[in-house]
Amino acid sequence: MTAAVSIENLTKIYTLDLLKGRRRVVALENLTLSIGEGHVMGVLGPNGAGKSTTIKLLLNLIRPTTGSARVFGLDPSNAEARRHVGFLPENPAPYEYLTGEEFVRFAGGLSGLRGAELTARVKAVLEQVQMDRFTGVQIRRYSKGMTQRIALAQALVSNPRLLILDEPTSGLDVLGRQLIRDIIVAEKKKGTSVLLCSHIIPDVEALAEDVAILIGGKLVRSGPVSEMLSSEGSRVELVFEGVDAERLASLEPEVIQVGRRLTLRTGADDARALIEAAQQAQGRLISMQPIRHSLEDTFLDAVRSSQNKVGSTIE
User: What's the Cα-to-Cα distance from 58 to each of 67, 70, 118, 158, 200, rounded to whole Å?
Assistant: First the structure.
């Protein structure tokens, strides 16, 4: 089966014309990853990590310096490859004097839909994003969340095999976020592949099967979400009362003190030693529970471990 996205050793270097001379910025360096058909891949990274550059390369908005990218086995410059892609940008800016229905119909026409098929798809996606009540309203009168939904409708109208979603829940309230998550799940069940870039890490953890973490233009960690979470080792949270944190400092736990209560976080193997030390100091154990390692923890660990090791290179 052909991968929905296949990227090999992809590098993008921008040349900047500055007053003091020309400089090169490495926005993406030797990126290799793939997205299987019907899979959701989450891409995480701080600002300037290379996420937007990767998306632009897949959409043929820019060309790589070296390396290759394929969309269903085709170069992104191939119109047939782009015909299978629906794209929601981070800050959509549809023409504001069109109504929502006119905008989605226009997008469907650009993708090759015509006649009754186009009308049916426009109606279906407007209902899917719950904007069917506002089809005759000009986009300039929409809230940010409504604009986000109508932009998602245009990404869906052509029945794409690959959805590229850049911050799809930006500007949405809790109900809007849940709607977008439900739509992504429904698209995945249909066999649609999804490239999901988001700063809302819990959304990525809930939706994606695989995740790639980009920092400074380099891929620093990737793999199935389940493996990333299970590989972090077990940790526990202990709550004591009546013990001074300094009496336990030699064991180097993470410490949070609120009044008389002391919350300690440490590896499961070190928990017994902490309990014994606290009891010797006349402390009382209130509770002990395992700590679930989240994708956000994994991301922050990757950022901390990558400091001063990766970054956009300026030459």
Answer: 12, 8, 26, 18, 22
- Is the distance from CB of 100 to CB of 139 less than 8 angstroms? yes
Structure tokens at 240: 């004591």
User: Strands, DSSP E only, in the chain?
Assistant: 5-18, 21-35, 40-44, 66-71, 85-88, 162-166, 193-197, 210-215, 218-224, 235-241, 254-258, 261-267, 284-291
List the beta bridge partners of residue 290.
Answer: 236
Residue 287 sits in the same domain as residue 167: no
Same domain, 72 and 172: yes
Residue 29: which domain range?
A: 5-84+160-230
Global pTM value = 0.81
Residue type, 11: T
* Tens of pLDDT, residues 220-253: 999 998 888 764 556 778 788 877 666 666 655 5
